[in-house]
Amino acid sequence: MDKKFIKKIRLVLWLSLFIIVGFLLYQAIMPNGVVKYTYDFSRPDIVNHFINKLTPKERLKIINNNIQAVIGEPVYFSLRTLRKFDKAKITLQYQNPNDLPFAEIGLLKDKIIWRYDLKPITNKTLNQLILAWSVVYGTNGEMLIQREKKYQTVNEFLKNLPSINEIAVYNYDFKSNYLLPKYSPTKQENKISQPLRGSYQFYTYIKNEKLDFKFSFSSLNQNKNKDSIKLNLYYQDKIIDSQKIDGNDDLIDNGKKIDQGELHFDIDNLSEGVYKIELVANDDIITEQIIFKQSKLSFINRLWLADGAKNIKIQTDSNLVSAQTVNPASLQTIKVGDNNLILAKTYQQFDIASHKKSASIELDKGDVILFGNGVFSFDQNSFFEPVARKVDNGLDINANGINYIIVKYQQPKEVDKWQVAEAEFDLTNAYREYSAHQLGYTNKMNFLISILGLNAEDDIDDKIIFGKITVELYGRSLLDRIKGIFYEKK
């Protein structure tokens, strides 16, 4: 073979390698700190190395020349990057032919308890109220929606708040110094002996008393996890105390239940107000008992009643109550107020609307997960709701006497027969998975899309059609990084 021809081939190969390496280095450095990726749902055959396809496939359907429709929720996608970014702006192009009322997109922040930072895609209740009620716009993108116009500005509202029971919020960091009128501490010891599975959160109230909670734990050993346990105590959205049990390093899944120890909050000299306690634990962990000396305790939004309990009674202010079980022996009819919620299948969520400010829930047996858009309590006397309600599809505005709604929300825009919604995320505290990839060493972030009422297992032909997902990422530029190194050394 001609030597000149061989040299040309080598030159082409080296040049190709140089271009590939240069491209990967550019992607890893992104010298200006900004990058944009787009996933086109009309081309599912094209692999996007940065935005993965939606999953699971059971909740997706191909229609109309490769257009991908979502027929069940939630669905997930992940984003891979070759360097860290601080902020993401996500633009969703979609169609909503069945006028589904509520959709959100979320960034995974904590994998143990599957906590997502949720942002709006569309909210039909808000879309209607913006047209029907009085709207005042704030200086930071917030809106105050009033049944009757009383406040001229958002600041006037925030400085002279009405009763918390009249307020609802959405996608807004609403702070209220909630105080219970005529509250007096209890002198008796209270106990929740109903075992609870996995993570949970609850509110309690303190005034001239110690915060005193003792928790007893066990492990089911059904998964090969370390079974660590962490309790966080919050006041005004800040952690003021934390305790933990590290768990056993011997990762076993023999199904033999073992004692996992106790944790005890015993804190004096606390300011009057609402406190939140959060248990961070996987689904192997059972809270066998909670002994406490406070008179108020309400669980927030979700409660997994562990197996073995019978004749359970719970109070809730949720307008929409949902239930799910993975245990065939726990299928049952649940009484919610005057209505029956029939839990007919495993691994499927069943819902019922209450349309009341307060309702009782009665279950024959446990191993059931309850969801709601309010709080749950095992005792009517300990029940209280110290925060403003969230404007989701389960909130009955009239039944709850809501007169004021403060939100950060942009209605979707219509562009060429597509709805376009935008959401921004702070990535600094995102849950990340680092791994080798054909692009190189990447960090992966996980997102969820939730569309309330969309169920792949029902017989209803409803869907959301997605056109494109565009992700714009923002981080420090190469120049800022160099400056940072220089000033740190200096």
Can you offer a commentary on this structure?
- This protein is mainly β and about 500 residues long.
- Among the domains are: about 5-30 and about 480-490; about 35-120 and about 420-475, Sandwich (Jelly Rolls); about 305-380, Jelly Rolls (Sandwich).
- It has helices at about 5-30, 125-130, 155-160, 480-490, and strands at about 35-40, 60-65, 65-70, 75-80, 85-95, 100-110, 115-125, 135, 140-145, 165-170, 190, 195, 200-205, 210-220, 230-235, 240-245, 260-265, 275-280, 285-290, 295-305, 310-315, 320-325, 330-335, 340-345, 350-355, 360-365, 370-375, 390, 405-410, 415, 420-425, 430-435, 440-450, 465-475.
- Strands 13, 15, 16, 18, 20, 21, 22, 23, 24, 25, 26 and 27 form a twelve-stranded antiparallel sheet that branches. Strands 1, 2, 3, 5, 30, 31 and 34 form a seven-stranded antiparallel sheet that branches.
- The longest helix is centred in the N-terminal third of the chain and has 27 residues, at about 5-30.
